Amino acid sequence: xxxxxxxxxxxxxxxxxxxxxxxxxxxxxxxxxxxxxxxxxxxxxxxxxxxxxxxxxxxxxxxxxxxxxxxxxxxxxxxxxxxxxxxxxxxxxxxxxxxxxxxxxxxxxxxxxxxxxxxxxxxxxxxxxxxxxxxxxxxxxxxxxxxxxxxxxxxxxxxxxxxxxxxxxxxxxxxxxxxxxxxxxxxxxxxxxxxxxxxxxxxxxxxxxxxxxxxxxxxxxxxxxxxxxxxxxxxxxxxxxxxxxxxxxxxxxxxxxxxxxxxxxxxxxxxxxxxxxxxxxxxxx
Length: 285
What we know:
four-stranded antiparallel sheet
C-alpha cells in the first residue's frame, strides 16, 4: 500500500517549488537585464550558452534549457528523481523568465554596476534555487558523476571548467570582459553560499571544564534558551572532567563567550554544514 502524503509534507513540497521558481526568475532577471547586455558572463553551462547565443544569435532562453537538461538525465540515478524533476522545473522557469526579460531594457550599461548588482541578484536567485533543492547548471552533476572515476573533487572540477571558460571569454571579448566575468563569478559564489546556508548559520560549541557544569548549563538555558549534551571525559594531565556540546546561532556567540568567561574552561567553536532532524531544527529556530 502506498503511503499517503501528509498535508505538512505536501505544503512543504509546494513551498519548495514556489521558492525554486522565484529563485530561477530572479536569476534570469540578473542574467538578461544586467550581465548579458554588457557581455559579462556567468560560469558553467549558462556561461557557455551565453557565448553561443552571442555568436549565433540563437535565443539564450532555449540554449540554457537545451544544454542543461541532458546533463540532468545522466544524473537521474546519482541525485534522485525528486532532485532531477525539481531541477528540470527550475531550468524551465529560468528559460521562460529569460525569454520574458529578453524583451525588457537593460537596467544599466555601466560594466561595474552590472557586475555588482547583477552578481548580487544572480547570487540570491541561484542560492534560493539550491536552498530549496533545485539546480540551474548541469556542470555540478557531471562533476559528481566523474569524481569517483578521475579522483577529483566536484568543486575543483567546476572551478577548472570555469577557469578555462573565462580564459576563452578573455580571448574572444577582451580581458576586461573576462576579468569582469570572473569578478561576477566570485560575487555570485559568495552571495549564493550565504543564501543557500541561511543568514542565521549555526555554530557548534564543544566545551571542556572541571567546574560545575550544572551552573554552565543553567546559564545557557536561562540566557539563550538552549540545552546541552553532557558526557564524562578525561584529560591527559588533570584527569576526569566534563564536556558539553551546544549548538547556537552565530548571533548568540557573543553571549556564549560572555558566559564561558565566568568559568574555567576550554572551548572550540566550529561551523555546521547541515542539521538533520526536525526536533533539533525546531529548537534552534
